[in-house]
Amino acid sequence: MSGIIAEEYRGGSLENKHEGYICILNKDKEIIYSKGEVEQTPIFYRSAMKPIQAIPVFDTDIQEKYQLSSAEMALFCASQRGENYHQKSLESLIQKMDFEEKSLICGESYPLNESPKIKYICEGKKKRRLMHNCAGKHLGFLAYAREKGLSTEGYGDFEHPLQERIREELEILSEYPKEKMSQGKDGCGVPVYGVPLRNMALSYLKFVSPEMALSKEKETILKRIFKTMQANPEIIASHDFVCTVLLKDKNIIAKGGAQGVYCLALKEEKISIALKVASGTELLWPLIIAEILKKINYQNKKTISDLYDLRSTEILSDAGETVGETKIIL
């Protein structure tokens, strides 16, 4: 069961209510705050699973073998938006690894951000698989399969060894039995899984407490992923996005997913947070996360301020007049 997490008022009258779920864990894996039911109902990660899906490829030597840059490695965890810096890094990555674009099973797409999309179309360019939001993740899948001597055909099938390993990694990090996970295909055509929100938060806690991993090897991989995402905040999403604001804070790992899911964890405090807006909207993310950080007395006030810069609590008319407000309810 969900709870009310936001209300929108216009002219002083209630216009919208948004339900959702929030779970915050401390270093001892204890729930220190929750809203809605967070321990029973599986919720799909969507793209918030990308740092976990990147574990196999980070468990190879392809960075050294193909001389990949930090930005190119970050694409394995990214939901890129088609900005020029994304396009350049994707082109370089696929060329260095010598993959054919037709090997990607994700659909063809234009850049997602409006400005590069307009430029791309005006230049007469067609949709490409390489422009898909998840293309970097798929290149990581192909790279792992090839390096391990696995078939690159069917890499998105549930029974492919790569996807079986990802499910096992998720089971380890989330501490939720893989047999009980929800499973489906994500928009890009590969498996995605669902766990209760507490377990989702627990999986992100491991990225800021890698010593919780079952081996030194896994600890090293989690640290590499954290460091890589931190070093390339705009690659993970793009400028003026929640992920970028949070990843510019050297204390935070963060990744959003479709349908209102967001996960983050704080390294110094050893706190992790998972949330879902039930309606699936992403518009409330900056305000909800800012209010959560305020609630736990987070010390980096600039990060909170930058989140408010992304989305004001004020509701504006098309002419910029204040006509209402959004209230986050924790």
UniProtKB/TrEMBL annotation:
Species, as recorded: Oceanobacillus jeddahense
Domain of life the protein comes from: Bacteria
Protein name according to UniProt: Asparaginase
